């Protein structure tokens, strides 16, 4: 950007000589106007605010020093001044310094001297502009964050909007950009986005907000979107394409609802956050625009309990082909039933924690799983659904292999499977003899081993599981007592009531009433 310089001298030939002698562009300036007297010069300065004024001392109507004095005292503008004069009187220099004149150059003008002075002035301006811009950006980003995240009264919201330093255009959208599969410095993301939107225009400012974990948000307005024909969707596609090219990885973009006024950008921000939840159910190659998704909504649900049980059984039995099938079905269900992003995370983490718990129950060390750390932190760094699926499968196969080794190393593998069987079949008529036959074990040995492993008799454990499930149903349903008894494996409601009271110290009815 070239700074504006205003030439003031009553000698027309001096002015033209300066214009032709100096490499203005090379010094960072362009001559914006000229004047032959101080009075006209003062009027121009007050009206057009040049960055630098080069003036002679002796001029008609208003001399150079009076011009500087009036400009300083009016305080409407604050240009730098360079005095060029044939008078070497020291008093002039003293008075010039008093008014903050940058330099005092004697005629005849030396090209190298004045160009060096101009470069110093330009450097000073550049540093001041950058410092002011940095201050304004800090104020703007603070106001931007407050506007998005704090409930403000309308007058405070208007005050925040004023601090954003954005043009008063109509139409604003908040966009969240997510870089998948690799860690990237968000400073680089900002640079790519700014160049895509503004080219090399150094004075243009984009409001960003860090979302952490390879995610960054930005505010765009209608004037920035218009050059990209096709509106906000095409604009987002271009930004996505540029980021993909420069970062060599998959990029997901979420677009909030367009709002007319900057005071309402919080609405766009909140809808962009909601659009994040559509990540695993929408086509990853296109921007996800809130309100324009193929699925009208996402579901905050979990996988069916039987799916978890089946997967855990296959992991414990090290059935690799079945584990692969389970994972494929699991991820297909995420998409078919439009699982929200948070619901996908919950479902995956539930399996991971269950695997760790199973390992610990077998005296195994989960730290031996090389894939565990990545699975514990998988959501901290955004990834595509395909990448997550592969990571999850690798973890399960490694865990299945470790569990299989632990089962072979200790004789309690069967007893853990028996406990698992009771946990999932407590509604059935379970007896020690029946279970022992099912697992090809001697009933007496099985009973002893169960007591040794879990510190209670097999029959006591069945009762504990059934009572715990009954308590859950009494809390969460309005089933009658006999219905609860039947659903947890008691054929005789009276016996159920007796055992419940013996275990909890109160009858089922009393338990429900105290809730």
From TrEMBL:
Residues 416-514 form the HTH araC/xylS-type domain. Its main location: cytoplasm. The modification 4-aspartylphosphate is found at residue 56. Residues 4-122 form the Response regulatory domain. The keyword Cytoplasm applies. It is found in: Cytoplasm. Keywords: Cytoplasm, DNA-binding, Phosphoprotein, Transcription, Transcription regulation, Two-component regulatory system. It comes from the Bacteria. Gene3D superfamilies: 3.40.50.2300, Homeodomain-like (1.10.10.60). CDD domains: REC_YesN-like. This is Response regulator transcription factor. It comes from Metabacillus bambusae.
